[in-house]
Amino acid sequence: MENQNFNFNNPTDIQNVSSEVMAKTFTARVFSWMFLGLGITGFMAYIFAITPSLLSLMYVTTDGAITGMSALGWIAMLAPLGLVLLIGAGINKLSYAAMIVVFLVFSALMGMSLSSIFLRYTSGSIFSVFLITGGMFGVMAFVGYTTHTDLTKFGSLMGMLLVGIIIASIVNLFMHSESFSYMLSFLVVAVFTGLTAYDVQKIKSIGAQINSDGSTVGKMAIWAALSIYLDFINLFLALLRIFGSRR
Q1: Which of 13, 38, 108, 185 has its CA 20 to 30 A from that of 76?
Q2: Is the pLDDT of residue 171 over 60?
Q3: What are the CA-CA distances from residue 125 to residues 129, 133, 183 (Å)?
């Protein structure tokens, strides 16, 4: 077999190879945390859904239908928002261990709050939509990682649309329009599909520029994992509202 000798005479070549390796390593680390978070969320959602005693801690049900929410249910629904803000604001203040604990607690609470989907949709449709979400997310993550086009402006546009979606969703809390909510789900799919590509490209860029200690890199990985975790969850829920088969 012919020996291949790689001679990097240009310092830029060495730097490019090093940056690519760092980007791959960091991205892999981010996705590992994201998959762990999704695993915890899925496990907690399923366990709470199939265990009546746990379900009764979260919701008030009548004949298997949710008619209200308990105090714990409200905590599980609202606390993740606070934890997201804590992770974002505390990346320079929290320790690496604290960031891990917050992320794991966040994932568990999200699972508890999402347990209601097993009461509203059939298990088969949940599984099917999860596979569809995984496929769409994977394709867009690949696009974001491999494209040479700068997606910064595109990401800013998606961010503005997301703000619009949030405002529209708040308005719909008072309108109680099922048709408006259904149409809004299509926009949510489009926005979070685009944000997936943008966020993955941003993660790759961060990884290529890392020049800090291990704990700081670890905290950045958790923060980045949270962003793509939210992309996946919001994409999944929007697709479930569109394609899910209700009980």
Answers
A1: 185
A2: yes
A3: 6, 12, 20
Q: Which amino acid is at 224?
A: A
Would you state the structure tokens that stand for residue 98, as one six-digit string?
């604290």
Q: Which of 117, 154, 131, 142 is nearest to 245 (CA)?
A: 117
Task: State the burial class of residue 189 (Cβ atoms within 10 Å of its Cβ: 0-12, 13-18, 19+).
Answer: buried
**Rama region for 210: left / alpha / beta (φ>0; ψ in -120 to 50; rest):** beta
Mean pLDDT, rounded, of the chain: 86
Token pair 């979260």 in the structure block, residue? 58
Per-residue pLDDT at 65:
64
At position 128, the amino acid (one-letter code) is: S
* pLDDT value of residue 16: 54
Find which of 21-30, 63-72, 148-157, 195-204 is predicted with most confidence, using mean pLDDT: 195-204
